[in-house]
């Protein structure tokens, strides 16, 4: 089959790889009909190469149809339509029982001290082949799927794999008081969807980014937006001015470890991404550093006693965090990968024909799998208006 493979720093290619097959009785194999490219894939493309091997199949946002099931799979039969959450979970351990599927104790990648195994996400998360491919092997398939009806286009349900539960959890973890306010830093797919969900839930939302078409897209939904490139004062000062001098009740950081505006950390990340991988892994494991601009901004913007929800991924080991300010402002911090299945029951009712979150028109591009190298480049460089790109493995270029 054809699959999108990691080939090195800023290099992906579509290759022929062996078809996945049932390896364990608990596996299923699905034929992928749509698969998204996520901001998290960009970390593999840019800074986390030390944990990748050339040829690794990428992708963790998939929807498709069950092709084959192992002998121990009881919840699925060939022909079922399923969305595959980005994490693999067993559904019956201590963590899964609490809805913490990203911490599943059956699939945790203990060798690297990581939580649940993830599709297409490096050795740190189990080196499981991903879903940017014609077919995907789904381990622990009885728990690792969401059943969806046949009929509506993939666009309606695809985002249950990542964007929707991630943005929903970001808003939940932001703990915005009733009628309160939240600043969302970063308007990529995750920040954009977090704005939509927070606005739908009746909060005052202020979206912040530096990319014009991302700001326009969010503003078009009636959400207040601030363009970082036009500021004459720190963002915190501007937001305090419009919130009675306090700052917003909550802040969602939907940017993460590759924030724009940390030149020294950017240089450190870039240097380590060019080292031989064994050396780079050692460097990352001991001193790995993030660009903390967005997190520092969040600490400034949030009101005293407010909550910061970190949804953007961080990976550093020795990041300099301003403990004095966090402590003095009495800030609550919540973070983590999204526990996809935890939020499906909240989200399914929002995927009706009235489409209150605008999922049907959320993708800016739908491209054949073969266009993946261009798609990754466009998404990373934010050209061609690319915000959300969906690959279609069922069509020829
Ligand atoms: N927690 C989870 O489960 C989970 C799931 C999916 C994605 N993520 C993470 O969420 C983050 C966003 O993902 P995405 O798909 O929206 O990716 P993205 O890279 O398209 O979005 C990031 C946005 O942040 C903006 N930005 C950069 N620096 C900024 C700054 N200093 N202040 C404000 N905005 C800034 C960029 O212009 C971009 O629009 C990534 O870190 C990704 O890894 C986390
Ligand atoms: Zn993702
Ligand atoms: Zn589990």
What labels would you give this structure?
21% strand, binds zinc ion, alpha/beta, 7-stranded mixed sheet, 6-stranded parallel sheet, 15 strands, binds nicotinamide-adenine-dinucleotide, globular, 27% helix, 397 residues
| Secondary-structure-derived class | alpha/beta
**What pattern of helices and strands is seen along the backbone?**
EEEHEEHEEHHEHEHEHEHHHEHEHEHE
Largest sheet: 7 strands, mixed
Helix content: 25-40%
Portion of residues in beta strands equals 15-25%
Low-confidence stretches: none
Supply Rg: 20 Å
Mean pLDDT: 96
Ligands, ions, cofactors: nicotinamide-adenine-dinucleotide, zinc ion
Euclidean distance between termini CA atoms: 15 Å
SSE blueprint:
Layout: E1 2-8, E2 11-16, E3 28-37, H1 39-46, E4 62-69, E5 81-84, H2 94-97, E6 135-138, E7 146-147, H3 154-157, H4 163-174, E8 181-185, H5 189-200, E9 204-209, H6 212-219, E10 224-227, H7 235-241, E11 248-253, H8 263-273, H9 277-287, H10 293-301, E12 302-310, H11 323-328, E13 332-335, H12 344-347, E14 365-368, H13 372-381, E15 389-392
Parallel strand pairs: 8-9, 8-11, 9-10, 11-12, 12-13, 14-15
Antiparallel strand pairs: 1-2, 3-4, 3-6, 3-15, 4-5, 5-7
The structure holds nicotinamide-adenine-dinucleotide and zinc ion (2 copies).
Would you give an account of this structure?
This protein has 397 residues and is of the alpha/beta class. 27% of the residues lie in helices and 21% in strands. It is built from 13 helices and 15 strands. Strands 3, 4, 5, 6, 7, 14 and 15 form a 7-stranded mixed β-sheet that branches. A 6-stranded parallel β-sheet has the order 10-9-8-11-12-13, sandwiched between helices. Strands 1-2 form a two-stranded antiparallel sheet. Helix 13 (372-381) links the parallel strand 14 (365-368) and strand 15 (389-392). Helix 4 (163-174) packs across helix 5 (189-200) and helix 7 packs parallel to helix 10. The model has no long low-confidence stretch (mean pLDDT 96). The structure holds nicotinamide-adenine-dinucleotide and zinc ion (ZN) (2 copies).
